[in-house]
Each structure stands twice: as C-alpha cells, then as structure tokens.
Design goal:
By secondary structure, this protein is of the alpha/beta class. The chain is 36% helix and 18% strand. It contains 18 helices and 16 strands. Helix 4 packs antiparallel against helix 7.
Length: 555
C-alpha cells in the first residue's frame, strides 16, 4: 500500500495564522474536525481518498496550530466565516466540504452563509438537539480546566475524557446513557486531553455547536448534503430525527466497516468544485512573531521567526522538556532590533524526529540547514539548558556562527554523566489512569526545587526563586508532551557532550547562569573549558538578562 505524505502549513488570514494539513492530488476536498482535536484527527482515516483528491484539513481557530478568533464566544457562523476566509487565502473558490461533529456544524453554516463555496456537504455525525438538550449540554458538556498548582486539573480532564467514552452526554452517568463502547487506549485519551489543554478555550467549539440550530440550518441550505450516520457514533441516532427532507439532502446510515465507502458515495453525489489546488503559499515575514515549516531530515520542522531586519540574526535553541514556544518571550526580548529564528528541535514539540539514533552532530547539522534555508549568511546562537551543547556543536560545525550565548547550560560531571543519561529524561508512557500527566507535572515543578530534578535530596536544593506559575508550567507541559516519545533522544545527545569537547571553538562565548543556583557549577565548567568565554550571573530578572545578552551580541 502506498503511503500518502501529509504535510503541514500555515496560511495568513489578516493577522491570524491558520494551520492546515495537506495530502494527495486532484480537486480539493476540505475537512473540518471535531472538538477538541485538530485536522490530525480526521486526516488519517481519509487518506485513501488522497489518490483522487487533495485533502485540505484546517485546524479550527483556537485549536491545533490555528490562532483563535478575536471573539470572546465564537458562534458556528463566526467559525464558518473564518473557514471561508481560509479557503480564499489558499485560492479555493469551490469544493466539497467534510465536517465531523463540531466541524459538521461549521460546514453547515459555511453552506448556508457561503453557498457558492460549497460543492456539496458530507456531514459525518452532527447533533440535532432539542432545545432542552442543547441548553443542558451547553451548560455542562465542556467544563473549563484552569491550571492549578497541584495539577488536579489534569486528573479532572482525564476523567472527563474517559467519561465521554462511557456515557453520552458524559455528565449523565446513568444506565440508559451507557454507550456500547470499550474504553479507548491510553494513548488516545492522552492525545484528547493534550488537545484540550492546548486549545485556546477548548470549550468554545462545543458551545458553538450546542447553540447552533443545526436542524433549521440543514433545511435552509441549497447544496447537496449527506448526513452520514455511522454505527457506534454517539450522534448517529440523532440523524433519525430528520423527516421530510428535500431531495438534495439525504441520510446515509452505515456500518463502521463500510464508512469509507459511504464517504466516497457522498463525494460522488456532490457537484464539481475546483479542478485543483495551487501549491501551498510560503508566509512572508511580518512584524512580530510568525510561524512556518521547513523541510528537514525525516520530516518537517516548526520554526518561529520574528524581529526586525538590520542586525545580525540570532538562532535560539531551547533546552529539554521544552519547545520554541516556551522560549519565545526570551527570544523577543533579546533579539530586539534583529531577526531571529527559534525552531522546535527535531523530535520536540511540533517538529518531526530525525531518523535512526541521532547524535549531537546530527542535531547540529539539522539546525545548520535550517539557518541556511532562512538565508542567514552570518548569525549568532543562544542555547539554553542542554541546548548549550547544541549551540557549541553548531558553532564548531558552521563558520557562519559569529557569537554564542550559553544560558544556564547543563553539563554533568564525568562521574555523574551515566546517572544523568539514565534518569534525567525518562520516557513518558501514557497510563490507563492518566497518572503519567501528574508525574510529568511534578517533574517540571521539581526542576524548580532540586538539581537534578530526580534526586530530591537536601543536597540537591536549588536556592533560587522557584518559577512555578501554573499557567507557565502548563505551557511547558504541553510543548514537552507533544514530543514525549522522542524528546529524550535530543536530551541524551546533548548530555553526552562535555565542556572539554569544545576547546576548538573560537567564537566569543558568553556563559550565563542565575546567581546562587546549583547549575552555576555547570556554567563555570563551560567558561573554563571554552576559549574566548566570558561569565555572567544574573538574578533572574528577564529585563536584566536581555540587556546583558543584547550587549554581548552587539559586541
């Protein structure tokens, strides 16, 4: 069986960045996902269609990688208008539209408000609530999970997701509401919880759906529409509430094993749309930060770009249990007056992993290629945590590197290295009860209390102001767990390196640490081993740090 590649892209709609996935060739078939997921949820099952169609799966605003709408409580109409704008940005004038669950409500509104854009509707599961049901579900179905210091919000989100699989609606835990479904695998539940945590208000899509009069809207649309009712879908029974349908609207009940044939049949019933889709546009630079993907070994890399032209560019390399989004505020503060590039390192956050068993040399070569593709003829590098080793390896490989900042570098003693390699970056395996989320949460919190985090002894106490704001920890948790299976490859590749390995680095190097921190010893070892290295210690004030770093980069 031929594997169809799925690529990820951004397209701009005004000031918003819309993330989408693309696969296949031929006429466009536009996909809208359910809440709280992204297009990554609907694309895999539909990939067999990519032999005849170009699948375009948009992330709903506020979900996946798409920026949210500038509306406090978006309606289905707001999401539909945004979808029409995203189609226009890609040059798609007319196409058949697929929507599932929340995405079906968006597709319905798109057909009602922008009928010329819709060659036909494939509504794969859509709710047709009574007024009483709609109010009850609007009020109860999607509770908010505010980050809390003890991580209890993660346990609540896990329980919420499991109950959604057991009952419909989940908050009616009654025999009559029990679903004929086995419990989903832990990895599946993990992904749903992570999507909930990552969305800019995951509940907004649900509330838009429950406040949408889908039955009235369906009877108002003038395009061909198929309501697909798949056996086992919690919304399938609601399709039977539709009566006296006009000839251009039909209900198609299907067994699970025949579902894809039902989608094919629904597509064949649609009218013709555009003949093809143009190649994905490359985002132009703009003020403030912006995102793009670049090709790398084994897949794509997510890049965050920004700054202003004029000064020498800076490449920022995040450390462990992190991602470019986590260090973006620091990058923007340090690189004022310069262009910057902050990638998700391969295998971390939104970047695909390198193939095989990557070494530090492989990671450096990957970043070197990204800097070259960005057009950097000369650039500076700032590496944080374990990323300090990557920054030095990059400087050793690439003569275009001008100056190097090592921010709170991590480098265990030779006698500690085996212990670090064995314990510092353990795999995060999803557990049936969700306790791995709490484990990960406390790993992040303990980093602020002990060094290394896993020792937790009196001798390991970090005597600095702990940075444990729950909202900030939540951001880091999300970006880290996106790459939970491969983040450790990067960490271990960096931990293998020792300061003494970089005696040939000739660029000016600034080694920075927080005054009084246990990790100051690591910084001192780097400063002693690397030629042309200077030391600085700051008290944790970001403004002070940014000014010191900027002055060093200015030379």
């Amino acid at each position: 069986m031929t594997t169809v590649p799925v690529t990820r892209h951004f397209v701009r709609v005004g000031e918003r960045e819309v993330h989408y996935r693309r696969a296949g060739k031929g006429p466009p078939f536009v996909l809208f996902h359910s809440s709280p997921q992204s297009a990554a949820f609907v694309m895999p099952a539909l990939l067999p269609l990519a032999q005849q169609w170009t699948l375009i799966g948009f992330d709903t605003p506020g979900y996946g990688g798409s920026d949210p709408l500038a509306v406090a409580a978006p309606s289905a109409a707001d999401y539909a208008d945004a979808a029409a704008e995203a189609m226009s940005a890609l040059g798609i004038e007319r196409a058949p539209i697929y929507g599932t669950h929340t995405g079906a409500h968006i597709a319905l509104e798109l057909a009602r408000r922008h009928p010329a854009r819709v060659a036909g509707l494939v509504l794969d599961g859509v709710s047709f609530n009574t007024r009483e049901e709609a109010k009850e579900r609007y009020d109860n179905y999607a509770p908010e999970f505010t980050p809390s210091a003890d991580g209890a919000h993660l346990a609540r989100a896990w329980q919420h997701t499991r109950d959604q699989i057991v009952f419909y609606p989940w908050f009616r835990s009654e025999k009559a509401r029990r679903l004929e479904a086995a419990m989903a695998p832990a990895d599946y539940i993990h992904d749903i919880v992570l999507w909930k945590m990552a969305a800019a208000g995951y509940w907004l899509g649900y509330r838009a759906a429950f406040s949408h009069d889908s039955r009235a809207t369906l009877y108002q649309v003038d395009v061909k529409a198929t309501v697909v009712a798949k056996d086992g879908d919690v919304l399938a029974p609601e399709a039977r509430r539709l009566t006296d349908l006009p000839s251009h609207i039909r209900v198609l009940e299907t067994a699970k094993e025949n579902w894809l044939d039902a989608i094919r049949d629904s597509l064949a019933w649609c009218e013709a749309g555009d003949a093809a889709v143009a190649e994905a546009p490359v985002p132009d630079p703009r003020e403030g930060s912006w995102r793009a993907y670049a090709a790398g070994s084994g897949g794509q890399r997510l890049l965050r770009r920004g700054g202003t032209e004029g000064g020498r560019p800076v490449v920022f390399l995040h450390g462990d249990m992190s991602g470019s989004r986590v260090i973006l505020p620091m990058a923007e503060a340090i690189a004022a007056g310069r262009p910057y590039l902050a990638p998700d390192i391969a295998g971390n956050a939104e970047s695909d992993p390198l193939l095989g068993a990557p070494t530090l040399d492989d990671y450096a070569a990957d970043v070197r290629d990204l800097a070259g593709a960005a057009g950097f003829d000369s650039y500076d590098v700032c590496g944080g945590g374990v990323g300090a080793a990557l920054a030095l390896e990059l400087a050793r490989q690439d003569a275009r590197v001008n100056r190097v900042i090592l921010n709170r570098p991590v480098s265990p003693l030779d006698t500690e290295r085996a212990d670090f390699l064995a314990n510092y970056a353990p795999p995060i395996e999803a557990r049936w009860d969700g306790t791995h989320f709490l484990t990960a949460w406390h790993m992040l919190r303990d980093r602020a209390f002990f060094w290394p985090w896993y020792r937790r002894t009196r001798e390991a106490i970090r005597r600095i102001e702990p940075q444990i704001d729950p909202v900030r920890l939540q951001l880091r948790l999300i970006e880290w767990l996106k790459g939970r299976r491969t983040y450790g490859d990067y960490v271990r590749a960096c931990l293998v390196a020792a300061p003494g390995d970089y005696g040939t680095v000739r660029q000016p190097v600034l080694v920075a640490s927080v005054a009084g921190d246990r990790i100051e010893d690591d910084a001192a070892r780097y400063a002693a081993a690397v030629p042309n290295a200077a030391r600085t210690a700051w008290k944790g004030d970001v403004g002070e740090m940014a000014a010191t770093f900027a002055a060093f980069l200015d030379g």
